[in-house]
Every structure is written in structure tokens, then in C-alpha cells.
């Protein structure tokens, strides 16, 4: 067996849990992985997300957060982030995709 193969493991030996969660209080939203909040319109998905972003960007060990929101303009997203107390320097927003198309419909 080669030196590289000594550390090889089968898929069933890999962890089934993420290493670290951004939302520590309830082990939701794993750090470094894509998370989506999905539901019908008007149910508070954006408000929940922006409230969490406000908390995450201003705590003792602040996070930098990537945000992709299809429904709101830049002005509206910024206004809502400010309302929720977010540190805007730690919020990354991509309204236009690398291929030049917009996330806005």
C-alpha cells in the first residue's frame, strides 16, 4: 500500500455532520456550505435571513456573509441590512452573475 493510500477511507466512514455551524444555537446553516431558505412569498424568509446576517456580522467573532436575493433591488437590500444592524463591510452581495446575467427576474 502506498503512503497516500494509508489515509484513504471508504465513503461510509466519512462524517455525516458538518464540522461547524454558523447558527450555533440550533446547529443549523453549516459554515462554508450553501444554505437556502425556501418557502412561499410573504412568509418572512428574507426577514429571517437579514436578521441572522445582522447578528452574524456583528458578534464577537463576526462572519462575512454572501447574499443572493432575487426579489429586491440593491437599495432595498441595503436598507433592510441596515435596519437589522448588519455590518455592511461583512456583507457580500452579487446581483449580477459572472456571465453578465442578473439574479433579478
Summarize the structure in short.
The chain is an alpha+beta fold. The chain has helices at residues 45-56, 74-83; strands spanning 21-23, 28-30, 65-67, 91-93.
Give a written overview of the molecule:
The protein has 105 residues and is an alpha+beta fold. The protein has a domain at 20-29 and 44-105. It has helices at residues 45-56, 74-83; strands at residues 21-23, 28-30, 65-67, 91-93. The strands form 2 sheets. It has a two-stranded antiparallel sheet with strand order 1-2. A two-stranded parallel sheet has the order 3-4.
β-strand percent reads 5-15%
- How many separate helices? 2
Q: Mean pLDDT, nearest integer? A: 81
Using the alpha-carbon principal axes, give the shape: globular
Largest sheet: 2 strands, antiparallel
Summarize the helix and strand pattern as letters.
EEHEHE
SSE arrangement:
Layout (H helix, E strand, L loop, with lengths): L20 E3 L4 E3 L14 H12 L8 E3 L6 H10 L7 E3 L12
Features:
105 residues, two-stranded antiparallel sheet, 2 helices
Amino acid at each position: 500500500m502506498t503512503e497516500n493510500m494509508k489515509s484513504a477511507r471508504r465513503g461510509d466512514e466519512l462524517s455525516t455532520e458538518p464540522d461547524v455551524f454558523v447558527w450555533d444555537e440550533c446547529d443549523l446553516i453549516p459554515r462554508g456550505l450553501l444554505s437556502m431558505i425556501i418557502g412561499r412569498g410573504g412568509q418572512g424568509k428574507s426577514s429571517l435571513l437579514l436578521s441572522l446576517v445582522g447578528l452574524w456580522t456583528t458578534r464577537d467573532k463576526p462572519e462575512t456573509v454572501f447574499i443572493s436575493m432575487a426579489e429586491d433591488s440593491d437599495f432595498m437590500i441595503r436598507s433592510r441590512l441596515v435596519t437589522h444592524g448588519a455590518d455592511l463591510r461583512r456583507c457580500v452581495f452579487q446581483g449580477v452573475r459572472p456571465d453578465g446575467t442578473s439574479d433579478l427576474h
